[in-house]
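TICKET: design request
STATUS: open
ATTACHED STRUCTURE:
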């Protein structure tokens, strides 16, 4: 029997927000290969990740559907396929598709315009793609409309477009320090690691404080997005590992600084999508074209939570170590005063020259053209 006694705010907080907690659960369900529901004004949409498509999943969607099953594709993937110039998601009738057909449509690099009519994506389509991005999955979904009666009988997690849209901002408010300890480093013996938890996906973010930065003066800061291949394994395809170590060394030489090590692998797309893009780069694409071929954004990262980390550490004015002007703009919008910027470089090689040129040409990174030319000359010799 349901109690009519009002539930206190403390109890509601303990068991999660009625709107936001289902978004976290939906992310976990999609990553596990299960479907979720998006309840919108016009009805209820069932959503499953297209990359998880199996015969069993497709059979379940067909049995669930009130109408046909649709394959929802991002505008970026549709542009790559050459099917549209519209800047919006659209869909294909996927009722009769097999898993191999779906896989080709969402990520095969030599796939071109399918001989199928595009359908309107329908209500909640952009919300569905946003949820898939939060789950670090390819932005391609299998969707179908379901009846209200069936929606109430299913044990599936249900979310609303409004909750998905406000999820990032809600999680930002909850980011907090969970632990800290001194960790002497090769290039900076006096260093402290401060671990934050929160933000999208409740992943852990790390601030490395070198020396004793003075909050009253501009603090030298580097925002470094995690790069497993470059930071840990020394991949020659990028210069990330060199940038990481050179930034810490520069902070130690200056006397102090703060490096934020952010869990935003693959420009926010996740390690699995990064490896998919690497495969395409191996076949000749540059780093941005590879992401676009997969329907991914050029840069899916956010830096508002990095600004909040700096605020909680007591730093409001910084000198930013970056080659990416967009980072300074993002921090400024988030309330951090960027007093100046400083370039940070890694080693240039035949393997990463195309990567650096792509960052310069596609995203406006401030890479020294003369150094790139010198590297090309050395490689030719």
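STATUS: resolved
RESOLUTION: sequence designed for all positions
ATTACHED SEQUENCE:
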């Amino acid at each position: 029997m349901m109690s009519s006694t009002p539930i206190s705010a403390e109890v509601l907080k303990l068991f999660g927000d009625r709107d936001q907690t289902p978004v976290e659960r939906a992310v976990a369900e999609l990553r596990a290969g299960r479907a979720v529901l998006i309840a919108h004004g016009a009805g209820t949409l069932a959503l499953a990740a297209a990359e998880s498509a199996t015969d069993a999943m497709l059979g379940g969607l067909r049995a669930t559907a009130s109408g046909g099953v649709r394959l929802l594709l991002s505008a970026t993937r549709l542009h790559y396929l050459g099917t549209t110039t519209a800047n919006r998601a659209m869909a294909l009738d996927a009722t009769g598709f097999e898993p191999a057909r779906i896989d080709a449509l969402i990520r095969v690099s030599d796939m071109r315009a399918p001989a199928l009519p595009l359908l309107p994506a329908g209500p909640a389509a952009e919300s569905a793609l946003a949820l898939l991005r939060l789950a670090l999955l390819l932005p391609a979904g299998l969707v179908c409309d379901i009846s209200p009666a069936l929606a109430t009988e299913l044990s599936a997690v249900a979310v609303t477009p409004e909750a998905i849209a406000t999820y990032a901002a809600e999680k930002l408010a909850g980011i907090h320090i969970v632990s800290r300890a001194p960790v002497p480093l090769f290039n900076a013996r006096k260093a402290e690691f401060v671990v934050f938890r929160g933000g999208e996906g409740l992943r852990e973010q790390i601030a490395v404080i070198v020396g004793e930065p003075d909050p009253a003066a501009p603090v030298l800061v580097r925002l470094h997005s995690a790069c497993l291949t470059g930071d840990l394994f020394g991949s020659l395809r990028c210069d990330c590992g060199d940038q990481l170590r050179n930034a810490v060394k520069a902070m130690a030489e200056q006397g102090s600084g703060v490096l934020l090590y952010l869990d935003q692998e693959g420009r926010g797309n996740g390690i699995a999508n990064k490896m998919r893009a690497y495969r395409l780069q191996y076949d000749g694409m540059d780093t941005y074209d590879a992401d676009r071929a997969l329907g991914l954004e050029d840069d899916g990262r956010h830096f508002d939570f990095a600004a909040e980390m700096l605020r909680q550490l007591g730093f409001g004015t910084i000198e930013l170590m970056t080659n990416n002007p967009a980072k300074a703009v993002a921090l400024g919008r988030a309330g951090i005063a960027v007093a100046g910027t400083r370039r940070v470089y890694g080693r240039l090689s035949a393997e990463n020259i195309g990567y650096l040129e792509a960052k310069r040409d596609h995203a406006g990174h401030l890479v020294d053209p003369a150094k790139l030319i010198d590297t090309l000359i050395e490689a030719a010799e």
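CLOSING REMARK: The radius of gyration is 23 Å. The mean pLDDT is 90.
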